[in-house]
Amino acid sequence: MCASVGLTSETLGHEPEERPIVTQALDSNSSGGRGGLARVLRPFQAFVRSQALGAVVLLVAAGLALAWANSPWRDRYFAIWAMPISFGLPEHTLTLSLLHWINDGLMASFFLVVGLELKREFLAGELASPRHALLPIIAAFGGVALPAAVYAGLNAGGGAAAAGWGIPMATDIAFALGVLRLLGPRIPPPLVVFLTALAIVDDLVAVLVIAVFYTEELTPLYLGWAAGALVVLLVLNRLRVRRLLPYFVVGAGLWYALHHSGVHATVAGVLLALAIPVQTRIDAAEFSRRMRKHLDDFDHAESGDLRVITSPGQLEAIHAMECESEGVRAPLLRLEHLLHGFVASAVMPLFAFANAGVELSVMSLDGVGLRVAGGVAAGLLIGKPLGIFLASWLAVRLGWATLPTNVSWPMVHGAAWLAGIGFTMALFVAGLAFGASPLQDSAKLGILGASAAAGIVGAALLVRATRPSPALRP
Question: For 22-214+264-280+329-468, CATH number?
């Protein structure tokens, strides 16, 4: 245990003050210059690399789902996801199909990561500065409102099709940033930051839309239990509980209560993220001082063989440094690091594999189905790029925001098209909007076709926008 380390706050003469991670992040980048810029951009570069890999895995999963759903073994594909699975105690068993466990259960971890990213960005990221955040926020609202309006306009007759207005609202950040990564160093980092912040904001809007508009009949008793679980989570935060296990236990209860309340259970992931602490146990300066002392202890400890660390003094110093490293990492960052790989490499591909399978041979795109597919496609391919670009242009034109450094309007246009890649969140909302109705397959077809087209057009526009002018070519 870390508590056994000899160097404690008492031996140093004071109790370490917990500092918000946002303060440390701003302090570490306040020096400016090239070094400060590199520190700011390094997390985004690592994030984009991970999202690029996730986009490839998602694409493979979706392709396999489409191939299986249209193969001679299609019945087996759909039978697997309909298989019932039960969890719980003998008197309190919850039985759902495998598809529902993926969409309602595993996807809660996806929404937890979304919530953690939102919280981090608003506290210490690009959205923490009003001057930097205003452009992607305004652009995101334009890219949310116009796609919904386009869909609603094409399905103005009402009926079952009208429920799909929320499908083309959100951007699939994994695919969008994956395309940017494939384009290589020609893409200026501030454009990556802009698209990342934009996608995070419209993910937030999508979560709010799901919570407010895509809920079933509410059950007051379970809503009360959910509110109680949320209060417990906030109390844990207030008490500065840094261990993640208590949050997971209470979060599981919150998910169960929301599942029975009528609010979609995945909202529990976002609510849990809000309660995860952002404070570190020791600040950066104190961490540096302690680590130097441990390194001195390590250097002065005797070892019989320089290639093998066997000295008790060296082993104690290593253990102490590990504990200090835990103290300087916020629980929010620890949890995000813990979950990100699992969600990107397992949860999202499994979700895509379970939801992207559309049996094309039995689809009918006449009448209502055609309006649904066309509304989704038009929302992603017309509403999304147009809404983002017009909102960005108006924000700059009115003096509310400025374009990021080294970013031109043609680059914004290309990024706006990449935001038309809806995929994960769009498929999720389609399931909420249409359930087991055949209209869900129509919506999926619109999502898959439009997302592919948006990615291709966006990449082509960005290649053209970042091409050196003739005067600058060697």
Answer: 1.20.1530.10
